[in-house]
Write a structure and sequence with these properties.
Layout lengths: L2 H25 L11 H8 L3 H13 L3 E4 L3 E4 L4 H25 L2 H20 L2 H18 L3 H13 L1 H6 L4 H19 L3 H25 L1 H5 L1
Antiparallel strand pairs: 1-2
């Protein structure tokens, strides 16, 4: 490997790291929808130069989390409530199908990984650690999607799910909904272990529809957020 190749690899890794940090800030609401991404402020906060920061903007724009505006810089992408609702309905169908296929194809090793993530998720829930909970939660959903063994389904899901990452995070902000989601995940694991595809499909669809209803109620109650 040449010095130029190493330098290029290091640069790409740096851009990916900055992109991941910005993505977390968007998902967790530190950078809300519509917020302008101030290069000077973010360069100081993340302790990086503007070059990797701009590359990170481009990477996040490619997955729909950032909008690049001509002569106006970059802003956190916004979704209208109607777009959020429509996207969640499609994701519910995709996750339901993934659950049914995963029940047919999941291996014992994959089940062990999902169980471990379930324990991590429960521990984060007990601590009221929402970022930790969300990370484990999303990994569980990703493992179920991978166990479905359908790359077209996984690609479609990934593209749509990325657009509503931040809203999925917010759908657990009420204690009642958070506790309900944990109970639903416990039932998901049981159905996956039993290889009960039809029941798992129905539960996953219900799980996503519950998230959608919670989020839409919140947006309706906070119209300034919907406008943002």
């Amino acid at each position: 490997m040449t010095d130029a190749t190493v330098t290029s690899f290091d640069r790409s890794a740096r851009h990916a790291e900055v992109s991941a940090r910005l993505k977390a800030m968007i998902i967790e609401g530190e950078l809300p929808p519509g917020a302008r991404l101030n290069e000077r402020v973010l360069s100081e906060k993340l302790e990086v130069s503007r070059t990797p920061l701009r590359e990170a903007f481009k990477m996040l724009a490619g997955i729909g989390l950032v909008e690049l505006l001509p002569n106006r810089g970059a802003v956190v992408a916004r979704l209208e409530p109607e777009q959020v609702e429509a996207t969640f309905k499609v994701i519910a169908a995709l996750e339901g199908l993934a659950g049914e296929l995963a029940a047919q194809n999941v291996t014992d090793a994959e089940l062990a990984e999902i169980r471990a993530l379930q324990y991590d998720m429960l521990a984060s829930h007990a601590r009221r650690d929402l970022p930790g909970y969300f990370s484990a939660n999303m990994q569980i959903h990703a493992r179920i999607m991978a166990a479905a063994r359908n790359p077209v389904l996984a690609e479609t899901f990934e593209r749509l799910n990325t657009r509503v990452f931040a809203t999925r995070y917010r759908s657990n902000l009420t204690t009642e909904r958070w506790d309900q989601a944990v109970a639903e995940h416990a039932d998901m694991l049981k159905l996956l272990e039993a290889r009960n595809g039809p029941a798992l499909r129905a539960l996953l669809e219900t799980h996503l529809h519950n998230k959608r209803r919670t989020l839409m109620a919140e947006l309706a109650a906070r119209p300034q957020d919907a406008a943002a």
